[in-house]
Design goal:
The structure is a single chain. The protein contains 24 helices and 30 strands. By secondary structure, it is an alpha/beta fold. Strands 22-21-20-19-27-26-25-24-23 form a nine-stranded antiparallel sheet, with no helix packed on it. It has an eight-stranded parallel sheet with strand order 14-11-10-28-18-17-16-15. It has a seven-stranded mixed sheet with strand order 1-4-9-7-8-6-5.
């Protein structure tokens, strides 16, 4: 009997394996992430008493032999097994199909596990490398002398050919050993392009023979990669089926070039070493012929070091002030019929593209390079979102998406998992019926850094019949989800470029005010009603057009990249920021577009996180423990982990905004604070909130009640223990808030079960504790408070005892 299923049905099934007189259980596909395209489970078990022997047919390359050796080492780490005779055979059969670069079929494979052995058929070596990772995930972490694997056939290939990860070695320098570890993680997640950000305002990171002052003067005390080190990284990546894409920023993000070679710049200077984050003004001078000689020499060196036929030139965040204020540049623009700085930028990019073409390289740039004069075939990478991505594709350019995949921003994993690549259709009627009430408000959301977020919110209808949409300034229209409008209150959810937004708003006459919770942290919103069914001559707002993609241009969507910018990342928290969320982005890029189920995501992510520590050697757990122990060396580590499980770093760019106001917003701000020791999300707090929601539908359920109380008491007990063992001010403040929230939760459960209303002083105390916990404290949110807040709101709406 055969059963065909997708991984979602397999995710946490447990098979009872009877072997040699005892029962051994192993999770079936517990850590399969990314989810394969098709899994067929079959009857029978493959019993293993030792590491499988590998037989390779169709290829004897050094890369595949080395991959087999790494597989053997990791299999042993995962299972505790060693080589034994007779041993199971793992047959790798490579067809060696002649396929072009970045072709999805080149990574296809079929993995068959039967009682007789294991067979891995692949079109190319790349497919074999991907299939070996899947097999290691299928094996899982199973220590014991008798291992049995469920029989299955897995047929797989990626959704997108380009699945990248950007590592920023500029803001904080990353040693080669740390980069290699991330390459191991990328291979495990089936990511295939390392986008290596090597130059920016804050430093130049590779050795240049042609312009040596770049690495001797502008590298921050010799923090650069030698040519030998770069070659080492490229070879290490190649062995794992990963291409390395260098990014060399021009014409902006050029403060390091300005420090080393100020004569190439558009303004006279003087220039200093830059350690501040943000967008800076220095620009290369497009009217200076020596700039193109510089570009030719640098890109020649890049082409020698990096065999991948693409080079990223940045091209983003060009502040035109220095161009506008330079008379020679303005005269150059007029002489070349360049009407504005955007056209001047396009001219510069065209010169770079011509240089790269002579070097047999194609150019990649961020959104800002898009222009009608952009060289055909240039890849546009979008940080601005689906609208910009759609615009690039409709202009005929291949494109990549990074919006929604910025892993340096703390975000919930399910937000990354929900990302849509292209503009989404409006699936509600945006035209009110003749008898329907409607209102539109123009709103503003101030931020401590950058421009205010502005837009219009429109709600049509009332109560359960309400529907609505939001028009953020510069973005196309989005339908809001879970909309509730009642008695002047409005609530809704919508995923944005900032993260998942939960709105809690109030209307009074023509005013709109309340909170936009971006991820886990609040922004204040204010607005005024400017149109509505009862305002004469008013109309529904006109939306920005959507760049829908025609079917004949779908092939231009190449894929996407996760991005790990390093303003808030250094080698001590690199893995903690990147993993395990990197697997979520990898799944969005590899697995079928229909893979959207969120209920098991947290469990699957936890399983793959554990697997990646034991099998791959990733250090997200270790880095968290090290940082916590450093913050409170006298405290028990278990106590610190329990208290920290109630906390999350503020999401989106809240931490950037806070540092802009309260610190230097530069490399001088140390990354040794409590927020730096926390993963992006607390799985424990998320599960607690989920359990609260379930319990509120069955408050008499003793098991659910006990589970909630056990978690709250664990937080309370750990908080009490930590209170006397740390003098860290941040930890003390957050610890006190965790204690207050835990006590509040226990009180609320007691009152809800008894259907008793809170006393006025209790009501005030709990409300104050929640307000404190859910606002930023030292760049942190007490995430446990979300579940307690749900208890509090329920306690205010439940009927009293006897009704």
């Amino acid at each position: 009997m055969k059963r065909i299923t997708t991984f979602l049905l397999l995710a946490f099934a447990v098979v009872s394996l009877k072997a040699t007189g005892h029962t051994h259980t192993t999770p079936v596909a517990a850590a399969l992430m990314p989810q394969p395209q098709l899994v067929t489970t079959e009857e029978g078990l493959l019993h293993l008493t030792g590491i499988p022997s590998i037989k390779i047919i169709g290829s004897n390359s050094d890369r595949l032999i080395a991959a087999g050796q790494r597989f053997t080492e990791r299999f042993s780490r995962q299972t505790g097994l060693t080589r034994s005779m007779p041993n199971t055979l793992l047959t790798l059969r490579i067809r060696n199909s002649a396929l072009p670069l970045l072709n999805k079929k080149s990574e296809s494979y079929t993995l068959a596990i039967t009682p007789q052995g294991i067979t891995l058929n692949a079109a190319t070596e790349l497919g074999a490398l991907r299939g070996l990772q899947t097999l290691l995930q299928w094996v899982g972490i199973n220590q014991g002398p008798n291992l049995a694997l469920p029989s299955a056939v897995i047929r797989d290939q990626p959704r997108f050919a380009w699945r990248g990860l950007l590592l920023d070695s500029v803001r904080h320098f990353l040693p080669v050993t740390d980069i290699k570890r991330q390459l191991d993680g990328m291979a495990a997640a089936k990511l295939n392009v390392l986008h290596w950000h090597l130059t920016d305002d804050q430093g130049w990171r590779f050795e240049s023979s042609a312009y040596p002052r770049l690495h001797t003067v502008a590298s921050n005390n010799g923090q650069f990669y030698s040519r030998q080190q770069i070659t080492d990284v490229v070879n290490y990546a190649h062995a794992r089926g990963i291409y390395v894409l260098p990014e060399i920023d021009m014409p902006g993000h050029a403060s390091a070039i300005a420090l080393a070679y100020p004569e190439l710049m558009s303004a006279p200077g003087p220039y200093r070493a830059e350690d501040r984050w943000g967008v800076h003004k220095p620009l290369l001078n497009p009217a200076n012929p020596e700039v193109y000689q510089f570009a030719q020499a640098i890109l020649q060196e890049v082409a020698e070091l990096f065999p991948f036929p693409y080079v990223h030139i940045g091209g983003d965040e060009v502040d035109p002030e220095h161009w506008q204020n330079n008379p020679n540049i303005q005269a150059f623009a007029r002489a070349n019929n360049l009407p504005d700085t955007h056209a001047l930028h396009a001219y510069f990019n065209r010169q770079l593209s011509d240089i790269l073409s002579q070097l047999n390289r194609a150019m990649i740039g961020w959104d800002e390079v898009l222009h009608p004069e952009l060289a055909p075939g240039t890849i546009v990478q979008s940080w601005q979102g689906p609208d910009a991505l759609g615009r690039a594709i409709n202009m005929g350019f291949p494109a990549l998406l990074s919006t929604g995949f910025y892993l340096d921003q703390p975000q919930y994993a399910n937000y990354h998992h929900r990302v849509r690549f292209l503009p989404q259709p409006i699936d509600i009627d945006t035209t009110p019926a003749d008898n329907e009430s409607w209102s539109s408000w123009r709103f503003m959301v101030p931020r401590k850094r950058g421009s205010d977020v502005q837009g219009q919110l429109t709600v049509i209808g009332e109560e359960e019949n309400a529907r609505g949409f939001i028009d953020f300034q510069g973005k196309s229209r989005q339908v809001v989800q879970n909309l509730r409008r009642q008695d002047g209150d409005i609530q809704f959810n919508v995923d944005t470029w900032m993260g998942p937004v939960a709105a809690t708003l109030t209307t009074t006459q023509n005013q709109l005010y309340g909170t936009l919770q971006v991820g886990n942290a609040p922004y204040t919103l204010t607005g005024e009603r400017e149109a509505g069914s009862d305002i004469a001559h008013s109309r529904i707002p006109v939306p920005q057009p959507k760049d829908y993609i025609d079917s004949d241009k779908q092939h231009l969507l190449l894929g996407g990249e996760a991005a790990l910018w390093s303003e808030m990342v250094d080698r001590t928290n690199l893995d903690l920021r990147l993993w395990p969320r990197g697997f979520v982005v990898a799944e969005r890029l590899w697995s079928d577009a229909s893979v959207r189920e969120e209920k098991s995501l947290l469990q699957r992510l936890r399983a793959v996180a554990n697997w990646s520590v034991h099998s791959v050697g990733l250090q997200h757990d270790e880095q968290q423990k090290n940082k916590l122990a450093t913050l409170a060396p006298k405290a028990e580590l278990s106590t610190l982990l329990t208290v920290s499980s109630a906390l999350e770093p503020a999401h989106y760019y809240h931490r950037h905004h806070e540092k802009s106001v309260h610190e230097t917003y530069s490399r001088r701000d140390r990354l040794d604070r409590l927020a730096d020791a926390l993963p992006a999300q607390s799985d424990t707090a998320i599960e607690f909130a989920q359990q609260v929601n379930a319990w509120l539908t069955a408050t008499n359920d003793k098991a659910q009640t006990a589970a909630l109380q056990t978690q709250l008491r664990a937080w309370k007990k750990a908080s009490e223990a930590l209170n006397n063992t740390t003098d860290n001010n941040e930890l003390q403040a957050l610890n006190a808030s965790v204690y207050d929230i835990s006590c509040a939760g226990l009180t609320l459960i007691k009152h809800i079960q008894a259907r008793q209303t809170l006393e006025p002083d209790q009501l005030t105390d709990i409300r104050n504790h929640l307000n404190t916990a859910l606002r930023l404290q030292h760049e942190i949110i007490v995430a446990a408070a979300f579940g307690v807040e749900r208890l509090f709101l329920h306690s205010q709406t439940m009927p009293p005892q006897g009704q």
